[in-house]
Amino acid sequence: MQTFHELEQTQSVIATILRNSLQTNRINHAYIFTGDYEPLLLEAAQLFAKSLFCERRDQIEPCQTCRSCRRMDSGNLVDYYQIEPDGATIKKEQIQELMHDLSLRGLEGDRQIYVVTQSHKMTPQAANSLLKFFEEPGAGKVAILITNQPQLLLPTIRSRGQLLSFRPADRLLIGQVLSEKTGRDNELTQLAARVYPKIEDAEQALVEDWFVNARVSVLQLMEELANRPADLPLFVQEKWMSQFKNRQDARIGLELVTCFFEDVLHLKLNPSWETITYANSRPLLEQMGGKSQTTITRWLQAVLAAVKRIEANVNPQLTVERLMFDLQKG
Ligand SMILES: [Zn+2]
């Protein structure tokens, strides 16, 4: 994210608040950025920092070309600090070292910005060290604490920072970010963003081939259903069960099927529907959209019921066999 204009597209309130403080030059000494997707929070923090450091800032937006902007982009700006958990926690020593560096470099009035990612992982001792610093921050120093679990921050920390709550990130956007990060195609990243509740899990899935193969199996299953419904049980036995072995995998497989049926239904109801997930399989989606709306709705309900059974600990194989029986009935 390079501009506040971009940030504004999804986080208009946050963008307005940050913009205002830049325009009026009223910068707090501590901010707490909270929201469900930390990478976006971090990008917003870096953008804010970049604007604050920019030597030729036009009111709000960083110029992108001055020495500071270029150093910020390459991660070489010495007055920008960023710390993250060392293992499971952020330790007191990490905060003390940060404070030491800040005091060593910081001449009075010089701008220094430090970002603490996953700040809810600070140990109580680390949080207390930070709190001491908050009491006498010195001019020009700005803290940005990032967290997706603000309730785990010490109340004293929370009360001293300006809390900025980001809107829940939209899945389309997350899909795009994941696509840039992992190099996977947009369809696959949209699917991962849909079926994995946690972004970290989606990202992990995208680097493994299992998820790529899972999409292939789902599309094969849909082909069978469209063209050879009588062969469904055989397909499940020979292919499906070896791809989706355990309960977790079975759930992912069924969620992927759910997304497919949703696409079929969306396209049927509105042929110019743009935001389909299985964008690469439009012909198959349209072919299946040739079925009646009742049939498609039944398919969708059958697979949703199967997901529920998996979650209720019914055996995955039995669940899928029953699902195939329901799908065949149409
Ligand atoms: Zn600049």
TrEMBL record:
Highest taxon, organism lineage: Bacteria
Biological processes annotated in GO: DNA-templated DNA replication
Molecular function terms, GO-annotated: DNA-directed DNA polymerase activity
UniProt entry tagged with the keyword Transferase: yes
Keywords: DNA-directed DNA polymerase, Nucleotidyltransferase, Transferase
Pfam families: DNA_pol3_delta2
InterPro entries (UniProt xref): DNA_Rep/Repair_Clamp_Loader, P-loop_NTPase
EC number: 2.7.7.7
Full protein name: DNA-directed DNA polymerase
Native source species: Exiguobacterium sibiricum (strain DSM 17290 / CCUG 55495 / CIP 109462 / JCM 13490 / 255-15)
Taxon lineage: Bacteria, Bacillati, Bacillota, Bacilli, Bacillales
